[in-house]
Design a protein that fits this description.
heterodimer, A: about 900 residues, alpha+beta, 8-stranded mixed sheet, about 55% helix, about 15% strand, B: about 110 residues, 4 helices, 3 strands, about 60% helix
Chain lengths: ~900, ~110
Amino acid sequence: MSDPAEPIWRRYLRFFGPDLRKDIDDEIAFHLDERIEDLRQQGLDAESARRIALEEFGNLASVRGALERIDRQTANRRRRRSRIRAVWDGIWSDLRFAVRSLRNVPGLTAAAAGSIALAIAVNMTMFASVDMILRPFSVAEPDRLVRIWSSQLQHGWDRVQTSLLDFYEWRDRLTSVDVGASRGIAYNWADGDDAERIYGVEITAGYLALHAVPVLLGREFDRSDETAAVPVAMIGERFWRDRFGADRNVLGRAIRLDGQPYAVVGVVSGRYDLPGRLPGDDVWVPLALSPEETRASRSATVLGRLRPGATLEMVRSELMTLVKQQELEYPATNQGVGVLVSSVWDDEVSPEARRMALALLVAVALVLLIACTNVTNLLLARTVERHQELTIRSALGAAQGRIVRLILTEGVVIAAAGGALGFVFAAAGLAWLSRVSGTNELGHGFVFAFSPRLVVYGLAVTVGAALLVGILPARRRASHLPSQLQVSHRTQSAGRHRGRLRSVLVGSQVAMAAVLLTVAGLAIKSNLRLLRTETGVAPNAGVTFSTVLSTREFPDSVRVVALAEAIGERLRTIPGVEIVGIGSTLPIRPSVAGVYFTTDVHPDLPAQNRPVAQLNAVDDDYFRSWGIRLVAGRFLAPSDRFESARVVVVNEQLAKQHWPSDDPIGRKLRFAGGDWLVVGVAADVRQLGIQRPAPQAVYVPMAQRPSRTIHYTLISTAPIDQLTRQVRMAVAAVAPGQPIIKLEALDAHVARVLREPRLIAELFGLLGIVGVVLAVLGVYAMTAFMVSQRTSEIGVRRALGAGTREVMIAVLLTGAGTLLIGGGIGIGLALVLTRFLATLLYGTNPHDPAVFLGVIGVLSGAAILAMLIPARRAVRIDPVVALRQE
Amino acid sequence: MSETKMDLLLGTLDLLVLRALSFGPSHGYAVARFIRQGSGETFRILDGALYTSLHRLESRGAVTSYWGLSDRGKRAKFYELTVLGKKELGDQAASWARYTAAVGRVLHATPQPS
């Protein structure tokens, strides 16, 4: 249409849109004229030329109608397309304008985007850790997994493992659930000179398929394997790679476990996630009934998956019936044996964990709100500074909508930039999280990475932030009218209303920071207290490792004790080694070995009422190697041999429980089929983890009750590397082929135990710091802005003789009210809210005065600092310069 | 005229129109003249159908139009092939050639002993 040949007058017509009908008529008329002209040149008269031309054309009216229809469609399509383009062009130009105008205020933009970035990064990092807490394993449909326990309520045991014979009957009869059973197992694996203690699981047929554990090579076990004469095994992926170089021909080869050959039938993928803890995944063998096993041997852990349409209740009622039948059929073994069905999901994610996750999420939400408030405030301040510009724009006819859009777009640009930067920061946060969270019991590291869920969350937070920061300033602006255009800066009063809004925002920011800081402070204090808790041990420099003597190679206790002591003797000859302690357990590691006992106070307590004590078989140096204090009597001695009188050292907890007012020394305990004379009392050790109080515990001489699992603890100041080498040589010299398990520095063992409280303290610390930094930024921005707005007023005051002190105080006072009110509300809110934290706090009052005073101190200090910088600038205002600006 | 013949005819007409425009922009009457002369008056195409073809081609973006002046200095609507139209011409011409060749082969074939 831009053809130069087009008559000018037609162009004006186009203002009213193309006239379709007229164009079509013109086009047809032109055609007919030309045709008539041609025909006449061929010699026809005007009349017949016209007739022929019309005949050749066809039905004029219907062609015209068809053309009009086509053209109307074309025009509509074009109009739609151009409308979309106009909208897009509008957005694009808004964006360009916003970027350009933000580039003029790089400091503000950086502060705003930085706030958002920090908040988004912190949000994503916390989300990743909360996700890990709430989803400890990721199998398909985790809510359909059930755990089935036997129970013997007359003993107070609600969750005991199940007898395999009972399980077989369940497996065949249950209709609402598919079940599989497993049992942890460990072998000494040997291949030539190479030997290793390997850990694995015994599983029933179809167990892997039931829980969607992939099989890389070969097959998993079927029912015939459970009773097969030739033992078969599957090996774990890691073991396969480390020991067989990922050789695909491993199938059918034999591996020697505890000296016996097993045919390898499959390789289990390392990429799986089973609830609960496996002792290891190097080897998998069929769970089969051993000859000595009876219905009373309860050792299998039963895990099931609900069949489609089944519920937990159906499983419960089905099992109740089965268990009652078994009770009647096998009264000797099953009298009083019940069943407990629980959802794995509910078991694994404890209420404490849920509450902790919730607390973390609330805390990060506060961080995000503080950051958004910051940006909102900065944008509001900007609209005030640009009051003149914006008012002139709207006086010149810029639509209100357009101005609102400009402000909104600035918010969006800032949020987008902050979001992008936030993802970068989040990557660093995830790397940090992966580093500090260490490894689990299987030695697998926790890996925190960008999961699809996390990315979606990050994007959602970014969009939310964009909306939050843009809306308020834009709404404010929308109420502005061109009539507010004012000539002088000083007489401008329209800003007052917005000034109050900004104060409210800063005040709420301070309030949120106070709440956040209080929560963080309480969490840190509680976790620091945990870290400082008397664990009961005082480890020195040294190493610890364990070994297990297999039944096959060391059938009798005498040989077990002999070898354990021989290794100990050899270790003592390593130069620089001061103490070698031997024990069946390690301190502060939950251990399953427990015994039921009676005391001489109530020697004939019925079985179901007997207390349990944690059983440790140790030698005389065990206590000294771990720094466990002696409270009374004596420790065990080398003279406490198998042949001599049975002696025991009890812990304070046990002594307090049973002989609260008497001297425990010389009293007697009865357990493991004999009487034991108490010769000493040792200080409590937090065996079950530092959050839990010490259980009752007994220490018996290794020589009198040997254990096949033996932990050695060596105290030496020699370098760890050197010590490690010497330990391996020493063990190999005494017992070639005997595996060495988990050789590590003593402090590494203790550090792992303390990892969780430390991590939580660090997370909350991080949140607190981020929150305070953001709030301080907010206070600073508010004060700085106020000073810049009042430059002329301050100049006048200075000119009238106000001194440095007066100006500073005036500046500090203007913000003080806001801060005091905000801080007060925050502390008040914190007092109410922290009550919900009470159950999460260890030995810390939710209204801990020190924490609250600390919060007040930190916040006031930070706020004063934030105000001092602009206040000093105010002091430097030169009255002459300030007034000349008018 | 049956439905299939009509379709064939329509498609063919589009192809002819595109070809007529392939020498450069021209108005509807020039297109009509080109087809009339090029076919040696073989086709009896109503000129009205030509215009519906042109407008349809414009609607689907194969040609654009503008108002200009004819050789005799009269105001006329000119049509020009777009990139899309050039491509469509190439495709349609090729498939037309294949089609006629196949029809021709069949017509000249004699039954083979099986």
